[in-house]
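FAQ

Q: What does a record look like?
A: Structure on top, sequence underneath. For example:
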């Protein structure tokens, strides 16, 4: 008989404050970069659809969605509706005047925020230049540290993590069985388990957090525990290249 954890995803009641990680503008910039589109010519219909899909996933994870996320969703839907309406009465405009693109204000906000992020990232990198990020130990960590020093550390955003999580869930093989052994798994238990692992393993792949037979509730609980450890600055997730493998790095001394 296969043993599974008897917890439906909807029963997980553990909130991680999302604003400690990213904001709605971060999500929009992430989608723009992911789709490789011109920030001055955003395909608003496609981006809105993807944005709402992320909102759906984050709600499923019981992440504490700030009101700004829902406000941005409403803004995107409003812009989308305005762009679907054909321009009329153009002749009534003053000569040489053109109606402003409904996306213009959003683009201005994105550009301002992007500049702020770039400056913030620059000073953050300067602050980390003389700081040991990885604990000494295994040859693998030493090798990766050298690789990071030559290529630069790429911090993984929450939205990259959500994409990685979706991939893990899709690959999970949950079998429908008649007999089920109920086994409770709490966030506290998973936090203790991951903390012990971080003490023993300086670094490991994000996908190594999840067993192949893990059920969706267990995957979600593990993911939320990882977010909590990141918030507590006990762990961080990084890449050596864009869209490369995501690694979990221990920050425990």
């Amino acid at each position: 008989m296969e043993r599974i954890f008897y917890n439906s995803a909807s029963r997980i009641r553990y909130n991680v404050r999302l604003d400690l990680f990213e904001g709605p503008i971060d999500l929009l910039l992430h989608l723009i970069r992911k789709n490789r589109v011109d920030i001055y010519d955003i395909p608003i219909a496609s981006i809105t659809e993807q944005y709402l899909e992320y909102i759906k996933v984050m709600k499923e994870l019981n992440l504490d969605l700030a009101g700004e996320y829902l406000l941005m969703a409403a803004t995107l839907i409003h812009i989308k509706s305005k762009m679907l309406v054909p321009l009329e009465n153009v002749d009534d405009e003053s000569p040489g005047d053109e109606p402003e693109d409904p996306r213009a204000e959003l683009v201005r906000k994105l550009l301002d925020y992007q500049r702020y992020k770039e400056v913030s990232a620059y000073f953050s990198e300067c602050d980390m230049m003389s700081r040991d990020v990885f604990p000494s130990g295994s040859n693998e960590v030493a090798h990766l540290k050298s690789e990071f020093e030559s290529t630069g550390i790429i911090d993984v955003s929450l939205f990259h993590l959500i994409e990685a999580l979706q991939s893990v869930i899709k690959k999970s093989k949950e079998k429908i069985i008649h007999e089920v052994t109920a086994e409770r798994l709490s966030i506290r238990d998973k936090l203790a388990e991951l903390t012990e692992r971080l003490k023993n393993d300086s670094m490991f792949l994000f996908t190594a957090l999840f067993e192949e037979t893990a059920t969706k509730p267990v995957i979600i609980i593990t993911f939320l525990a990882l977010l909590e450890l990141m918030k507590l600055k006990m762990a961080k997730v990084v890449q050596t290249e864009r869209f490369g493998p995501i690694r979990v790095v221990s920050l425990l001394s």
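Q: Is there anything notable about this one?
A: Residues 1-13, 175-182 have pLDDT under 50 and may be disordered.
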